[in-house]
Design brief:
It contains 7 helices and 14 strands. It has helices at residues 6-27, 32-36, 94-99, 132-143, 183-193, 202-205, 256-269, and strands spanning 72-81, 104-112, 122-128, 148-150, 155-158, 162-167, 170-176, 212-221, 230-239, 242-249, 273-279, 282-289, 293-299, 304-308. A hairpin with a 3-residue loop joins strand 5 and strand 6 (162-167). The model is unreliable at 22-65 (pLDDT under 50).
Amino acid sequence: MNSPPLILRILLLALLPVIAAVLYARGQHFDPALIDFKTVSEKPAETQPAGPPLEAAATDKPGTDIKKVAGFRQVGREQRYVKDNLYEHVNGHAEYFIGAGFLSLTVTDYVKEDSKSVEPEFQAEVFDMGNAIQAFGVLADESGDNPQPASVGAMGYKNSGGINFIKGRFYVKTTVFDRKISALNFAKAIDGSLPGGRDSLAIFSRLPDLGKVEKTRFIREGYRGLDFLSNVVEREYTAGGRKVTVAMMGGKGQDMTSLKALFFDYFRKSAMRYEKAERQGQEFYRIMDKYEGNWFMIPGREAIFGVFGTEDETVVDYFFKGKRRG
């Protein structure tokens, strides 16, 4: 086969830079729809109305009425944080909140309604933790071993700068910058501005009235060394001259049948003995635990209770009186 004439080959080589230049120029005017996998008829992103952060979509926006706080006036703009930027506000502690169920945070500064100050006198940090048990867990963790109670929200504690409390799924930290001003009045005003939540006190109402409450704790994971137990509420009582501890294991939305099966599987693998018994037609178990000593396991509808520190079987009655059933 004969090769093209020399002059034709020279012309073709000369055209290559021109063709490359045309292709480059066209490439600078590409159709974004081809890259974004959208149709040309869709509205550009900037024309779409702004919505709440994706992380907060599962619940109402935190602090729905936070601007309307009786007796106080907002100064400046509120600051909003989600998982991606929480570190900007709680640097070094963001992973803790995220691991505890954090959805979003609103930080707002206030002054008294009649104040002429342009500088904040108060601050409220409202953490949306998704549900009440997770909000309680953070409050318990951040309040230390012997916090001073404050009568605000479902549960509140004083600290050096103000009052922290929970209400429904919200964990709230209030700060008073002037120590002469009442921290409690401000905390109660914030409490009144937040939506309630049906589960505000439900997690505590299922615990029995065994005696004087000494301490309430929240154990996020690995309760008593068992990796299948997480989000446990533990309450210590003084009853009959001795310390009795009740653990509420599991919660709404968790399958109690599956949790009970995990316990029995653990007992079998650990060669641990247990005895089934009944009281008022309700089943419970006496566990002969070589690690924890003897204790009672009491299955409920929404939780399994463990009772430690007593072998008096009458303690079970407190869980089977209708109003105290899990």
